[in-house]
Specification:
Length: 144
């Protein structure tokens, strides 16, 4: 009987920690941050996307992206626009938040190249790279 109780308690602890992780993920999904470009806060809201399910719900089959809303993909080294209906602008950053590559008017159903030192990808509405004047080696972060 002692072995059964201890096993039951272990599974209860594991379930509770998984529930806490799920709640934390849900809180992070709902958070909206401001885009910071070279220490200047821009009027663009950024949402974090960490899973393919979130990407599908947020971006795939949307008619148009709003100019005041963008998305940040964490831990990506490449990007595909399968299922998109409109062009987007992509910004690849490394671990130090420095821009390493930009794509303007990235077409639907295309794939970018693989960036070995890529860490974060920002997806913005088309022509936002030109509007914000984003260049290589700029610093892009989000405000907390």
């Amino acid at each position: 009987m002692g072995l059964f109780r201890s096993t039951k308690q272990i599974f209860r602890i594991l379930r509770d920690t998984n529930d806490n992780r799920a709640l934390e993920r849900q809180r992070n999904i709902d958070k909206v941050y401001q885009l910071v470009l070279n220490n200047e806060i821009q009027n663009i809201n950024i949402r974090n996307i960490t899973t393919m399910n979130q990407k599908f719900n947020a971006l795939v089959f949307k008619d148009k992206l709003n100019y005041y809303l963008g998305y940040r993909f964490i831990n990506l080294k490449g990007f595909n626009s399968f299922g998109f209906k409109d062009d987007v602008d992509l910004i690849f950053c490394d671990k130090k938040y420095q821009v390493i590559e930009t794509y303007s008017n990235f077409k639907p159903n295309k794939v970018t190249e693989y960036f070995k030192n890529g860490a974060v990808v920002y997806v913005l509405a088309k022509n936002m790279n030109k509007y914000l004047d984003i260049k290589i080696k700029d610093i892009i972060k989000i405000s907390k």
